[in-house]
Amino acid sequence: MPEAASYRKVDLHTHSTRSDGRFSPTQLVDLAVEQKVSLFALTDHDTLDGIAEASQRAAEHGLSFINGVELSTQWNGVPLHMVALNFAEDNSALLSIVERNQTIRLDRARRIADLLVKQGLPDLFDEATALAGDSQLGRPHFATLLVEKGFVKDANKAFDRYLGNKKLGQLRDVWPDLEEVLTTLSGHNMELVLAHPKRYPLTVTKLKRLLSDFKKWGGTGIEVVSGNERPDSVRLLERLSREFGLKASVGSDYHGPFGPWMQVGKFTQIHESDVDLVWQTWA
Questions:
Q1: Residues annotated as region Disordered (predicted)?
Q2: What is the pLDDT of residues 208-264, one digit of tens each?
Q3: In a shared domain, residues 66 and 120
Q4: Which CATH number characterizes residue 195's domain?
Q5: Which of helix, strand or coil describes residue 146?
Q6: Residues 91 and 114 in one domain
Q7: Is the dihedral of CA 251, 72, 172, 246 positive or negative?
Q8: Does residue 61 share a domain with residue 77?
Q9: pLDDT of amino acid 186
Q10: pLDDT of 188-216, one tens digit each?
Q11: CA–CA distance, 283 with 281 (Å, rounded to integer)
C-alpha cells in the first residue's frame, strides 16, 4: 500500500439533517474539518439532497469530498444497508433506486402510523411529516411525538413499547432485494459497500453467505469498521474482506453528538496494510 494512505483521516459514512442526522450538511462538513478529516463522504439514507450543499462547503475548506448515499435493501428477509460511493450525482440507475426508496419510505411511514393506531395511539402521520420537514420521515419522528405527547418517557421507551422491529414486524419486507439493487448499479462506475456487517442478526456462517452473494451480484466493498466497534470484530471483517475479494471501507456512521465515543472521523483503528482500501485509487 502507498505510505500516504496510512496518514489520511478518512470518514466514508456520515449522516446529516437530510436524513436522520443532527447537523446540516454544512455543519457536518465544518465538523469534519475541525476533526482534521481529509477525505469525507456524506451518506444520508436514500437521498442525495444534501450532497450539493456538502460538496460546496467542502470545496470552500479544501476538503476532499466523495458523493455517497446509504441505500436500504434486504437479503433473505433481513433488512440491510448498502453504501454507494464516488458516483456521478446524475447517475440515472442510482437515481431510480433512490426515487423508489423515497416512495417506499413515505408509504412505510404511513404504515407505521396505521400500526400505532392499532396499538391504541392517535394518527400521528401528519404531525410526523411536519416535524420531519426537509429530513427523512421515519421512526425517530414518531418517537419524538410520542415523548412530547406524554405516551412514553423518552425515545428509547418509544422504540421499546411501540416502534421496535418486533412491534412493527410487518415492515421488514418493504425494501428492494439486494440482488436487484446490486445488479442495477453494478457497472455504473461507483463503489458498492455493505454497511456495518456486524450489526445484522447473522451468524458468521450466514454473513459469509451474504458476502458471497454480495460479491456475486456486483458488490465491491465492505465496511470493516463502523464507529466504535470491538477490535476482534474489525479483525474478522478485515479477514472477510480479503477472503471475498472486497475492498475495505471505513466510517463513523456519525449521526450527532450522542456520546463521547461518537465523532466524525472516529472509529476503531484498522490494519490498513492488510486490506485493499476502497479509496486507494481515488484521486
A1: 1-21
A2: 999 999 999 999 999 999 998 999 999 999 999 999 999 999 999 999 988 777 899
A3: no
A4: 3.20.20.140
A5: helix
A6: no
A7: negative
A8: yes
A9: 96
A10: 999 999 999 999 999 999 999 999 999 99
A11: 6
